[in-house]
Amino acid sequence: MSPKTFFTDKLAVAPGKCLHGRYKDYPGRPCLDVCPKKAITLNPLEIDYGLCDGCGICANACPAGALSVKESSLAEVASQAVSVAGKELRIRCSSVEGRSAAVTCLGALDFAFLDALCLRSAKDLMLLAGDCEYCATATGGEIIRSNIDVANRMLLLFGRGERISLARSADRQDLESGSRRAMFRGIGRMISRFVPEPEHPEQDSDPGPVPARQQRAIEIIRGLEEGRRDIDPRVPLPFTAKEIDADKCDGCNGLPRCVRLCPAEALGYFAESGSAGITFKAARCIGCALCESACHNAAVKSSALKSGQVEELWRTKTLMGFEARECGGCGGISIVMSGGLCQDCQQRERKLGWESVG
Fold first, then answer.
1. Torsion angle defined by CA atoms of residues 227, 229, 232 and 237, in that order, rounded to the nearest 10 degrees
2. Which phi and psi angles does 92 have, rounded to 5°?
3. pLDDT averaged per 10 residues in sequence order, the chain, 358 residues
4. Reported pTM
5. What's the CATH number of domain 230-323, 3.40.50.1220, 2.40.50.100, 3.30.70.20, 3.40.50.720?
Protein backbone atom coordinates (compact mmCIF):
# COMPACT_ATOMS: atom_id res chain seq x y z
CA MET A 1 0.00 0.00 0.00
CA SER A 2 1.36 3.38 -0.94
CA PRO A 3 1.90 5.58 2.14
CA LYS A 4 0.50 8.54 0.22
CA THR A 5 -2.89 6.85 0.09
CA PHE A 6 -2.92 5.29 3.57
CA PHE A 7 -6.14 7.04 4.58
CA THR A 8 -7.82 6.98 1.15
CA ASP A 9 -11.10 5.08 1.59
CA LYS A 10 -10.32 4.96 5.32
CA LEU A 11 -12.39 8.07 6.06
CA ALA A 12 -15.89 7.58 7.40
CA VAL A 13 -18.58 10.10 6.44
CA ALA A 14 -21.75 10.42 8.54
CA PRO A 15 -23.87 13.28 7.08
CA GLY A 16 -26.46 12.86 9.83
CA LYS A 17 -23.91 14.08 12.40
CA CYS A 18 -22.97 17.23 10.48
CA LEU A 19 -23.72 20.33 12.53
CA HIS A 20 -24.83 22.22 9.44
CA GLY A 21 -27.54 19.66 8.84
CA ARG A 22 -28.68 19.97 12.45
CA TYR A 23 -28.76 23.79 12.48
CA LYS A 24 -28.68 25.61 9.16
CA ASP A 25 -27.31 28.82 10.68
CA TYR A 26 -24.33 27.15 12.35
CA PRO A 27 -21.43 29.52 11.57
CA GLY A 28 -18.44 27.16 11.85
CA ARG A 29 -17.10 25.18 8.89
CA PRO A 30 -13.80 23.75 10.15
CA CYS A 31 -13.69 20.89 7.64
CA LEU A 32 -13.92 23.30 4.70
CA ASP A 33 -11.36 25.63 6.24
CA VAL A 34 -8.68 22.93 6.57
CA CYS A 35 -9.33 20.88 3.42
CA PRO A 36 -6.38 21.60 1.06
CA LYS A 37 -8.17 20.17 -1.98
CA LYS A 38 -11.57 21.86 -1.47
CA ALA A 39 -13.09 18.41 -1.75
CA ILE A 40 -15.86 18.91 0.84
CA THR A 41 -19.35 20.34 0.37
CA LEU A 42 -21.99 20.95 3.03
CA ASN A 43 -25.76 20.56 3.17
CA PRO A 44 -25.58 17.68 2.60
CA LEU A 45 -22.09 16.72 3.72
CA GLU A 46 -20.22 15.06 0.84
CA ILE A 47 -16.62 14.36 -0.18
CA ASP A 48 -15.48 14.51 -3.79
CA TYR A 49 -13.13 11.53 -3.85
CA GLY A 50 -11.83 12.68 -7.22
CA LEU A 51 -10.26 15.63 -5.40
CA CYS A 52 -9.64 14.13 -1.95
CA ASP A 53 -6.10 12.85 -1.31
CA GLY A 54 -7.05 11.12 1.95
CA CYS A 55 -4.97 13.35 4.23
CA GLY A 56 -7.55 12.99 7.04
CA ILE A 57 -7.10 16.42 8.62
CA CYS A 58 -10.80 17.19 8.08
CA ALA A 59 -11.60 14.33 10.48
CA ASN A 60 -9.42 15.92 13.16
CA ALA A 61 -11.08 19.30 12.62
CA CYS A 62 -14.69 18.04 12.71
CA PRO A 63 -15.95 18.25 16.33
CA ALA A 64 -19.04 16.08 15.79
CA GLY A 65 -17.51 12.99 14.19
CA ALA A 66 -19.34 13.55 10.92
CA LEU A 67 -15.92 13.01 9.34
CA SER A 68 -13.62 10.52 11.05
CA VAL A 69 -10.70 8.20 10.42
CA LYS A 70 -11.93 4.66 11.02
CA GLU A 71 -10.72 3.11 14.25
CA SER A 72 -9.37 0.10 12.39
CA SER A 73 -7.19 2.43 10.29
CA LEU A 74 -5.77 4.12 13.39
CA ALA A 75 -5.03 0.73 14.95
CA GLU A 76 -3.19 -0.24 11.77
CA VAL A 77 -1.05 2.89 11.95
CA ALA A 78 -0.27 2.23 15.61
CA SER A 79 0.69 -1.39 14.99
CA GLN A 80 3.21 -0.29 12.34
CA ALA A 81 4.95 2.29 14.51
CA VAL A 82 8.64 1.37 14.64
CA SER A 83 10.55 1.41 17.91
CA VAL A 84 14.17 2.56 17.62
CA ALA A 85 16.32 0.30 19.81
CA GLY A 86 13.30 -0.08 22.07
CA LYS A 87 13.40 3.58 23.11
CA GLU A 88 10.61 5.29 21.19
CA LEU A 89 7.81 4.86 18.69
CA ARG A 90 7.81 6.61 15.33
CA ILE A 91 5.15 7.68 12.86
CA ARG A 92 6.07 9.69 9.78
CA CYS A 93 4.25 11.76 7.21
CA SER A 94 4.32 10.39 3.66
CA SER A 95 6.89 12.98 2.51
CA VAL A 96 9.52 11.52 4.86
CA GLU A 97 11.41 8.39 3.84
CA GLY A 98 11.73 5.57 6.31
CA ARG A 99 10.37 2.27 7.53
CA SER A 100 8.08 3.41 10.33
CA ALA A 101 4.31 3.79 9.90
CA ALA A 102 3.38 6.49 7.39
CA VAL A 103 0.24 8.59 7.05
CA THR A 104 -0.59 11.06 4.34
CA CYS A 105 -0.59 13.86 6.94
CA LEU A 106 0.21 13.81 10.64
CA GLY A 107 -2.63 16.31 11.09
CA ALA A 108 -5.06 13.37 10.95
CA LEU A 109 -3.86 12.08 14.36
CA ASP A 110 -5.77 13.43 17.35
CA PHE A 111 -4.31 14.05 20.80
CA ALA A 112 -6.16 11.13 22.40
CA PHE A 113 -4.73 8.68 19.88
CA LEU A 114 -1.20 10.01 20.52
CA ASP A 115 -1.58 9.70 24.29
CA ALA A 116 -3.13 6.23 24.06
CA LEU A 117 -0.23 5.01 21.95
CA CYS A 118 2.35 6.33 24.43
CA LEU A 119 0.51 4.97 27.45
CA ARG A 120 -0.11 1.50 26.02
CA SER A 121 3.55 1.09 25.05
CA ALA A 122 5.08 3.15 27.93
CA LYS A 123 7.34 4.77 25.32
CA ASP A 124 7.97 8.22 23.87
CA LEU A 125 6.54 8.94 20.43
CA MET A 126 8.46 10.73 17.68
CA LEU A 127 6.44 12.19 14.80
CA LEU A 128 8.52 12.82 11.68
CA ALA A 129 7.31 15.62 9.42
CA GLY A 130 8.46 17.02 6.12
CA ASP A 131 8.52 20.71 5.28
CA CYS A 132 4.96 21.61 6.34
CA GLU A 133 5.37 25.24 5.30
CA TYR A 134 5.52 24.37 1.62
CA CYS A 135 3.22 21.33 1.75
CA ALA A 136 -0.25 21.32 0.20
CA THR A 137 -1.58 20.18 3.59
CA ALA A 138 0.20 22.92 5.54
CA THR A 139 -2.79 23.30 7.90
CA GLY A 140 -2.11 19.72 9.01
CA GLY A 141 1.20 20.87 10.46
CA GLU A 142 -0.58 23.48 12.58
CA ILE A 143 -3.12 20.91 13.75
CA ILE A 144 -0.58 18.29 14.78
CA ARG A 145 1.53 20.85 16.68
CA SER A 146 -1.58 21.86 18.62
CA ASN A 147 -2.49 18.23 19.31
CA ILE A 148 1.05 17.43 20.49
CA ASP A 149 0.84 20.35 22.92
CA VAL A 150 -2.48 19.08 24.31
CA ALA A 151 -1.26 15.47 24.50
CA ASN A 152 1.94 16.39 26.34
CA ARG A 153 0.02 18.64 28.71
CA MET A 154 -2.21 15.68 29.63
CA LEU A 155 0.78 13.41 30.24
CA LEU A 156 2.54 16.05 32.33
CA LEU A 157 -0.50 16.92 34.42
CA PHE A 158 -0.92 13.32 35.48
CA GLY A 159 2.71 12.69 36.26
CA ARG A 160 3.57 10.50 33.26
CA GLY A 161 7.10 10.45 31.90
CA GLU A 162 6.28 9.72 28.24
CA ARG A 163 6.55 12.59 25.77
CA ILE A 164 5.56 13.26 22.17
CA SER A 165 7.82 15.27 19.89
CA LEU A 166 7.79 16.52 16.30
CA ALA A 167 10.93 16.49 14.16
CA ARG A 168 11.52 17.71 10.62
CA SER A 169 13.99 14.99 9.73
CA ALA A 170 13.92 11.75 7.79
CA ASP A 171 13.96 8.40 9.48
CA ARG A 172 17.42 7.31 8.25
CA GLN A 173 18.08 4.29 10.43
CA ASP A 174 20.63 1.80 9.03
CA LEU A 175 18.46 -1.13 7.97
CA GLU A 176 20.84 -2.68 5.50
CA SER A 177 21.69 -5.78 7.45
CA GLY A 178 19.22 -8.61 7.54
CA SER A 179 19.71 -9.00 11.27
CA ARG A 180 18.61 -5.41 11.97
CA ARG A 181 15.59 -5.80 9.71
CA ALA A 182 14.63 -8.91 11.66
CA MET A 183 15.06 -7.00 14.91
CA PHE A 184 12.69 -4.27 13.79
CA ARG A 185 10.11 -6.79 12.61
CA GLY A 186 10.24 -8.38 16.05
CA ILE A 187 9.82 -5.03 17.77
CA GLY A 188 6.86 -4.26 15.52
CA ARG A 189 5.16 -7.47 16.62
CA MET A 190 5.88 -6.64 20.26
CA ILE A 191 4.35 -3.17 19.93
CA SER A 192 1.16 -4.56 18.44
CA ARG A 193 0.33 -6.05 21.84
CA PHE A 194 0.17 -2.60 23.43
CA VAL A 195 -1.60 -0.45 20.85
CA PRO A 196 -5.28 0.44 21.30
CA GLU A 197 -7.49 -2.12 19.61
CA PRO A 198 -10.78 -1.00 18.03
CA GLU A 199 -13.84 -2.41 19.77
CA HIS A 200 -15.72 -2.70 16.50
CA PRO A 201 -13.17 -2.55 13.64
CA GLU A 202 -15.83 -3.24 11.03
CA GLN A 203 -17.70 -0.02 11.80
CA ASP A 204 -17.63 2.69 9.15
CA SER A 205 -18.31 5.58 11.54
CA ASP A 206 -18.17 6.60 15.19
CA PRO A 207 -20.83 4.91 17.32
CA GLY A 208 -23.33 7.16 19.07
CA PRO A 209 -23.38 10.95 19.38
CA VAL A 210 -19.98 11.24 21.12
CA PRO A 211 -17.05 10.72 18.68
CA ALA A 212 -14.74 7.76 19.32
CA ARG A 213 -11.75 10.06 19.87
CA GLN A 214 -13.59 11.81 22.73
CA GLN A 215 -14.52 8.48 24.28
CA ARG A 216 -10.84 7.53 24.09
CA ALA A 217 -9.85 10.81 25.78
CA ILE A 218 -12.31 10.19 28.62
CA GLU A 219 -10.93 6.69 29.17
CA ILE A 220 -7.41 8.13 29.32
CA ILE A 221 -8.49 10.61 32.00
CA ARG A 222 -10.17 7.80 33.98
CA GLY A 223 -7.03 5.70 33.80
CA LEU A 224 -4.73 8.53 34.87
CA GLU A 225 -6.89 9.92 37.66
CA GLU A 226 -5.54 7.52 40.30
CA GLY A 227 -2.01 8.76 39.76
CA ARG A 228 -2.92 12.42 39.58
CA ARG A 229 -0.55 14.61 41.51
CA ASP A 230 -0.93 18.13 42.85
CA ILE A 231 -1.14 20.27 39.75
CA ASP A 232 -1.81 23.85 38.82
CA PRO A 233 -5.64 24.08 38.88
CA ARG A 234 -5.62 26.72 36.14
CA VAL A 235 -4.18 24.53 33.38
CA PRO A 236 -6.77 24.06 30.60
CA LEU A 237 -7.88 20.52 29.73
CA PRO A 238 -9.20 19.49 26.28
CA PHE A 239 -12.79 19.53 27.52
CA THR A 240 -15.47 22.20 27.77
CA ALA A 241 -17.09 23.91 30.74
CA LYS A 242 -20.40 25.67 30.27
CA GLU A 243 -22.47 28.31 32.02
CA ILE A 244 -25.88 29.91 31.41
CA ASP A 245 -26.59 33.56 32.28
CA ALA A 246 -29.73 33.47 34.43
CA ASP A 247 -30.56 37.08 33.56
CA LYS A 248 -30.72 36.24 29.85
CA CYS A 249 -32.16 32.71 29.73
CA ASP A 250 -35.95 32.43 29.40
CA GLY A 251 -36.05 28.66 28.95
CA CYS A 252 -37.45 28.99 25.43
CA ASN A 253 -40.98 28.44 26.81
CA GLY A 254 -40.02 25.07 28.21
CA LEU A 255 -38.34 23.76 25.04
CA PRO A 256 -34.74 25.02 25.33
CA ARG A 257 -33.15 25.31 21.90
CA CYS A 258 -29.69 24.59 23.32
CA VAL A 259 -30.93 21.24 24.63
CA ARG A 260 -32.88 20.30 21.50
CA LEU A 261 -29.97 21.06 19.19
CA CYS A 262 -27.08 19.63 21.25
CA PRO A 263 -25.61 16.93 18.98
CA ALA A 264 -23.87 15.01 21.78
CA GLU A 265 -26.72 15.10 24.32
CA ALA A 266 -24.43 16.95 26.71
CA LEU A 267 -27.25 19.33 27.59
CA GLY A 268 -30.45 17.99 29.11
CA TYR A 269 -33.79 19.25 30.40
CA PHE A 270 -35.80 18.05 33.39
CA ALA A 271 -39.23 19.07 34.65
CA GLU A 272 -40.69 17.79 37.89
CA SER A 273 -43.14 19.03 40.45
CA GLY A 274 -42.11 22.49 41.50
CA SER A 275 -38.98 22.81 39.40
CA ALA A 276 -37.39 22.45 35.98
CA GLY A 277 -33.91 23.03 34.68
CA ILE A 278 -31.13 22.63 32.14
CA THR A 279 -28.32 20.21 32.95
CA PHE A 280 -24.83 19.67 31.51
CA LYS A 281 -22.46 16.68 31.26
CA ALA A 282 -18.95 17.89 30.45
CA ALA A 283 -17.73 14.42 29.43
CA ARG A 284 -20.22 14.39 26.56
CA CYS A 285 -19.62 17.95 25.31
CA ILE A 286 -17.74 18.03 21.97
CA GLY A 287 -17.05 21.78 22.16
CA CYS A 288 -18.91 22.62 18.93
CA ALA A 289 -20.57 25.71 20.50
CA LEU A 290 -23.77 25.04 18.55
CA CYS A 291 -25.72 25.83 21.73
CA GLU A 292 -24.19 29.31 21.77
CA SER A 293 -25.05 29.88 18.12
CA ALA A 294 -28.64 28.71 18.61
CA CYS A 295 -29.41 30.70 21.77
CA HIS A 296 -31.43 33.75 20.71
CA ASN A 297 -30.58 35.54 23.98
CA ALA A 298 -26.81 34.79 23.94
CA ALA A 299 -27.21 33.24 27.39
CA VAL A 300 -24.94 30.22 26.90
CA LYS A 301 -21.21 30.61 27.44
CA SER A 302 -18.42 28.05 26.95
CA SER A 303 -14.86 27.94 28.27
CA ALA A 304 -12.03 25.44 28.64
CA LEU A 305 -12.39 23.07 31.57
CA LYS A 306 -9.49 23.65 33.96
CA SER A 307 -7.46 20.95 35.69
CA GLY A 308 -8.92 22.00 39.02
CA GLN A 309 -12.39 21.24 37.65
CA VAL A 310 -11.64 17.71 36.39
CA GLU A 311 -14.22 16.21 38.77
CA GLU A 312 -16.92 17.98 36.74
CA LEU A 313 -16.33 15.47 33.95
CA TRP A 314 -18.02 12.78 36.03
CA ARG A 315 -21.11 14.60 37.27
CA THR A 316 -24.25 16.16 35.87
CA LYS A 317 -24.31 19.87 36.61
CA THR A 318 -27.49 21.97 36.76
CA LEU A 319 -26.82 25.14 34.78
CA MET A 320 -30.22 26.78 35.08
CA GLY A 321 -33.30 26.33 37.26
CA PHE A 322 -36.89 27.43 36.74
CA GLU A 323 -40.10 27.40 38.75
CA ALA A 324 -42.48 24.83 37.30
CA ARG A 325 -46.14 23.91 37.90
CA GLU A 326 -48.53 21.15 36.95
CA CYS A 327 -50.81 21.86 33.98
CA GLY A 328 -54.54 21.69 34.75
CA GLY A 329 -55.20 20.22 31.32
CA CYS A 330 -52.65 17.49 30.56
CA GLY A 331 -51.07 17.14 34.00
CA GLY A 332 -47.57 17.80 32.63
CA ILE A 333 -45.00 20.03 34.29
CA SER A 334 -44.26 23.34 32.58
CA ILE A 335 -42.40 26.58 33.28
CA VAL A 336 -44.81 28.60 31.12
CA MET A 337 -48.40 28.68 32.36
CA SER A 338 -51.44 30.85 31.62
CA GLY A 339 -54.81 30.24 33.18
CA GLY A 340 -53.46 27.05 34.73
CA LEU A 341 -52.61 25.55 31.33
CA CYS A 342 -49.30 24.80 29.65
CA GLN A 343 -48.47 26.24 26.25
CA ASP A 344 -49.58 23.09 24.37
CA CYS A 345 -52.93 23.00 26.11
CA GLN A 346 -53.41 26.70 25.47
CA GLN A 347 -52.84 26.11 21.76
CA ARG A 348 -55.29 23.18 21.70
CA GLU A 349 -57.87 25.29 23.50
CA ARG A 350 -57.47 28.12 21.00
CA LYS A 351 -57.69 25.68 18.08
CA LEU A 352 -60.90 24.13 19.41
CA GLY A 353 -62.28 27.61 19.94
CA TRP A 354 -61.51 28.63 16.37
CA GLU A 355 -63.02 25.44 14.93
CA SER A 356 -66.23 25.96 16.84
CA VAL A 357 -66.78 29.49 15.56
CA GLY A 358 -69.51 29.64 12.90
1. 0
2. -120, 155
3. 45 90 90 93 90 89 91 85 78 85 90 92 91 78 94 88 84 37 36 39 59 88 68 84 94 88 94 88 95 95 91 92 85 76 81 55
4. 0.80
5. 3.30.70.20
